[in-house]
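Supplementary Note 3. Input sequence used for the single-chain structure prediction.
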Amino acid sequence: MSTSTLSSILDQTLSTPTAFNLQPYHVLLVSTPAQKELLKPAMLGGRVCDSNLTAIFLSDLEPSKRIPRILDLETASKSRTPDYLVHLPLSASFFTGEGGHLSNLLKAGALSTLSPSKPVPHPGTVEGWANKNTGMAAMTYILACESAGYATCAMEGFDAERVKIAFNIPDRYAIPMMIATGLSDDGEADKVKSTPRLEKEETVFFGGFGQTGALEDMYDDKQT
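The predicted structure, written as discrete structure tokens, is reproduced below.
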């Protein structure tokens, strides 16, 4: 993979929208034979050593530490209102789920009390929040690679603790996913046989859970 192609793929990956624009992830690229050998003992399987490179996605479990940097960027870009910037630290800290189990229980109790009278989002754990946002970036990476003609294989069969030790990754980060990327020996993207998928009628509902129908009947005015 050329550096210009990889740079373009990473630019697209880093453009992924995230909650509060906190961008709570890093991408660790593993490409040399020595780096692949370090990664290999942590894998339960997968195409790590055969691929051109593997992108290890790290999700930040302490996203509040990113707020000062994001505030600087938002202030310099002048893309947000002053009111938004004032409330960003408190809002972001509340909804990311950071703060521990007891804090989250108290939040959940307060929000459940408010829910009957007004709509309120219910934050989950910080790991769930960080992995969700990181997962969107990982999906952007996959699509960008595929658009550039490179095959990808998303993997979760690995020992995260071994990966952290091998690459000096702080405990602050979780590793929700890594993605093997590259071409086959003949220089073409691997042609992976499509796996079976559930029918739309089994997975897509209209207007209520379990309600199915024809796509043509989705809109009252029959718009296209």
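The chain has a mean pLDDT of 84. The CA atoms of residues 198 and 204 lie 10 Å apart.
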